[in-house]
Amino acid sequence: MFRILVSDPIDAEGLNPIRQNKNFELLETKNLNGSISDIEAWLVRSETKITKEKIEKAKKLKLIGRAGTGVDNIDVEEATRRGILVMNVPGANAIAVAEHVFALTLSLLRKIPAADKIVKEGGWRDKTLGGGELYGKTLGILGLGRVGKEVAQRARAFQMEILSYDPFVNSQRAGDLGIRMVSQEELLRKADILTIHVPLTSSTQNLISEKTIEIMKKGAVIINTSRGEVIDEKALAKALQDGKIAGAALDVFAKEPPQGSPLLNLKDQVILTPHLAGSTKETQKRVAKELAQSVVDYFERGLVRGGVNLPPEFEPEILDRLGRHLALTERLGRFLGQTLPGAWNKLMISTTTRFTEKDQKVLLHGALRGLLACALGDKVNVVNAAFYAKERNIQSEVKFLDESAQPIEEISLLIQENGKTASVSGRVEATGELRIVQIGKLFVDVDPEGTLIVIDNIDKPGMIGKVGTLLGAKKINIADMRVGRQKKGEAAIMVLTVDSEIPKATLEALKKVDGVTRVCQVSL
To answer: Which of 354, 389, 369, 374 is nearest to 314 (CA)?
Structure first.
């Protein structure tokens, strides 16, 4: 059974995909003393801080799940180093956030908080309450992810002109949704209402600053439900006081609660809510259910959804398209890593198949995972393979070979260490079977499975007999043997599949056989 810890309040009904599955044991507690050493997944919201020290104590931890979007309370770098998948539910609150955007926008334009206050204090209609409409206004959406798209869909009902800036979104796809993609500067210059939906990165921190506000249309309003640090609050407060910006509605702040923020001194010009855009009953249930189902899918099917530290290229459609080629690349990496152990610093993949750029990155991850596993063991996986490669300053690339030069679809890996090189090539048969077809310059036909003994030797009579006799005397059964050579009497290779690992003493004996130049044991 997989042991799952839930240490923050997460909707009970939403957790049913785990609770009702006999393969899982659900532990719900805030008391972490002695309860994390044998858990395999840890689910939290924002209260629990999963630090490096806690990760070190959770020896069996394979997955950390955040019931929400942000992962600020999780040491993602340490989790990645240890090969622990960090997973969140980024789009489950999209509807709630999009609705809150319009709740804030309408409240701001129609001055609803001020109107409510006047009525409750005994007043009535006031000339200061004249508001504005959404109809015909230009909505600028900064960031067109799931929330941004939900906002755009609702804006169409208000008959607004919708502009967006997002460097990662296809213009044709946005056009199908009635959105016109523009530059960031044009968006700022034309938007009557600017709504922000970007993650916090080095390039988005203080994105709305004195400089960018200066570009904006006089009298525009700003809505922020993404991250507080995206806005320079001092610059925004000054723009509101000067009349450059007519109003702002914020649900997030650089410091929460926003004690000392200059925005607190402004009254009718701003609406401030306590980071609750995604906090609806429906969202909490949806988030819990999606996270729980993702946990089940990961452990039972190996399917990853919402992986924060998984390489972004690992999309289901890419993995489906690559099929067995990814398994082949990893297997070739494992083979090479054991035939040329050491501090190799360069990896090149050559292929006769014209893979897309994303496909190539996935293949590189697979090769790195196979290669690094030889030195790092089970702690390296697709989550941290690139992390360890970067840490070791390993250079890698994918090179396309013209089909006319080599018409058979093959994948080749070459690694380099201080001038030494080793290479191996393989292919996926029509049946889906994997084969190693070339080792160095020598052609073979090897099943990359089980325990292999790779013997470099000089091609001369009696070599196969000497090796077979020695292994037979040691009671080692040879399940399969493949040989390859370039020219008679020159360099040759034997690849033996044996039923069990060979003792070190036997390997040393093989190395002493006359004509043998090198012996490697490879476990696949």
So the answer is: 369
